[in-house]
Write a structure and sequence with these properties.
The structure is a single chain. By secondary structure, the protein is α/β, with parallel strands linked by helices. Helices cover about 40% and strands about 15% of the residues. It contains 13 helices and ten strands. A seven-stranded mixed beta sheet has the order 6-2-1-7-8-10-9. A three-stranded antiparallel beta sheet has the order 3-5-4. Helix 5 crosses helix 6. The protein is globular.
Length: about 300
């Protein structure tokens, strides 16, 4: 692929998805666009780009989806889910006991493994939420990823990445050499196509938002704007999960890091002494929780 074609695709991704990639992603993008050209029967990347320059919205959307990064797995970063299940969920049950309602959002859910992992964690948390209204929204830019997630069918390789035999047998059914998520778990999750550059049309406030390894692909200005939008969809004391080791400087404007985990205190706001503060964890847990809390007053 010529450098000018690569630069064109980078600008296409930036303008239509907000992603900021560079030459370090050349070989990944080259492979993905080569697969797209082959699948769609284009003669060359130049022919594809000529058509993209005609502002074909449907084709642009297809190319952006084809170039999306979609690395995911069940219970990815297992320690995060272990503490979500054993530490945060019990405390959220106490915090939300009056409403008996828990809303969770998986942003950039890819093919659904993260969202179903959240659902399984909630389901097996000692029946704490048996009579609760549990709503898990999972969204992604890719309509193909959303379609696969909604179907809930995974290969042996996908199912064995992050799941042990007991969990597989508890929550999946073997179907023609693939594994299908059972209906109980599927009904806990609503999958929806969503481009993060657009305003999120959601009425609920989300006690927990998983947005792991998503924001790092955006420009710093967009990271700030997207964090602002996410925080507006959470109550004070709401939790935000970023990827482990993900460094997003704008986080300090909207969230502080949980107690005993290298605290981040939002600029211009004091750390709350109640509500979110009651959801702190011990130092023994801290290293495994890349969570941030929305402070009072934001």
């Amino acid at each position: 692929m010529r450098r000018q074609d690569f630069d064109f695709l980078l600008n296409l991704l930036k303008n239509n998805a907000g992603w900021e990639f560079n030459e370090t992603q050349y070989f990944i993008i080259d492979k993905k666009i080569s697969n797209f050209i082959r699948e769609k029967n284009y003669n060359s990347v130049e022919d594809l780009i000529d058509e993209l320059k005609m502002d074909n919205k449907q084709l642009i959307s297809q190319v952006v989806e084809a170039l999306a990064f979609s690395d995911t797995a069940f219970f990815r970063d297992y320690d995060v889910f272990k503490l979500f299940e054993t530490v945060l969920l019990p405390k959220l049950k106490e915090k939300c006991r009056a409403s008996k309602k828990l809303n969770v959002w998986s942003l950039g859910c890819s093919t659904g493994q993260e969202a179903y992992s959240i659902a399984m964690s909630i389901d097996r948390s000692n029946n704490m939420f048996a009579d609760w209204d549990i709503n898990i929204l999972a969204s992604d830019l890719s309509s193909l990823a959303i379609s696969k997630a909604q179907h809930g069918m995974y290969s042996n390789f996908e199912i064995q990445t992050g799941l042990n035999a007991q969990t597989i047998l508890q929550y999946f059914t073997l179907a023609n050499d693939n594994w299908l998520v059972n209906e109980k778990i599927k009904k806990m999750v609503e999958f929806r196509k969503y481009n993060m550059l657009e305003e999120a049309i959601v009425k609920s406030k989300f006690e927990v938002v998983f947005c792991r390894n998503v924001l790092r692909h955006f420009t710093s200005d967009l990271q700030d704007e997207l964090l602002k939008r996410i925080s507006e969809k959470q109550p004070q004391g709401g939790y935000l999960y970023l990827g482990k080791g993900e460094n997003i400087p704008a986080i300090e404007k909207y969230y502080y890091k949980m107690d005993n985990s290298g605290a981040y205190v939002a600029i211009g706001s004091s750390k709350p002494s109640s509500d979110a503060g009651n959801l702190s964890v011990t130092s023994a847990d801290a290293d495994a929780i890349p969570s941030f809390v929305k402070p009072k007053g934001l």
